[in-house]
Fold this protein.
Amino acid sequence: MKTVLALTLITFLMGCSSTQNNNQPVKEKYQTYISAGQYFPISKLTDISGNEVALNNLKQKKLVLLFATWCHDSQRTIKDILASDLVKDKNLQIIGIGREESSESLEKFKNEYQVSFPLVSDPNKAIYKQFANTGVPRLLLLDENNKLVKALIGEDKRTIDRIIW
């Protein structure tokens, strides 16, 4: 009983980091592979509906959210974004990239959470691995020229308050 309690506490405290094959949490140092001032290397993505999401609109800032549907921190961050004025901002493009998620799981999540921005499936972490080693949600704030302004890890309850360009 003490072992189960201890594992539950460790998992809760670690947030949504990686797991090993035996589902034991792995504590890794978070690394972000893109720095402020660097250009975002992707110009277009395809969302779960098959629509192209162009990231080359030079009139809009971008919020790229790397998340997982099973992660409570990701769920909370998405709820916070959807409840904020960010989704109404015509000068902001929001894109969610589901790390290790299929189009089917993202479609279900989109319907359940009433997500209003495009979701992109990243089943093999091909996109995610370009930007980070572990940890979700990750928020990449890009300016109008697609340069990274700030990268945030959204494990705290008010990450949305730190979304400032």
